[in-house]
């Protein structure tokens, strides 16, 4: 007997607030003091600049390029696999017909 489930009530959570608009975010940033904790966290993590370094941009570009190449290779492989599957299905049907033919000859 489960005594804990008798009086459980479903908790209704409040809805999420609307996301701020870009203008509101920029306004908040412009009003923030230079010693705001957000800026100190950014300095500690090394992300004080909003634009990434050239080497980071290049690394991301190469990463995206590699992804696109791999995606293209996967699509080509998928096409080859579909063709091979069709060939195997045709061969299986032909084999079934031959087996039926041989069985008919033996009877």
TrEMBL record:
State the species of origin. Austrofundulus limnaeus (Annual killifish)
Protein name as it appears in the record:
UPF0449 protein C19orf25 homolog
Pfam families to which the protein is assigned, alphabetical: UPF0449
Q: Which gene encodes it?
A: cunh19orf25
Q: Which UniProt keywords apply?
A: Coiled coil
Q: So what family is this one in?
A: Belongs to the UPF0449 family.
Query: InterPro entries, per this entry?
Result: UPF0449
Q: Transferase: present as a keyword of the record? A: no
The coiled-coil segments of this chain are 67-105
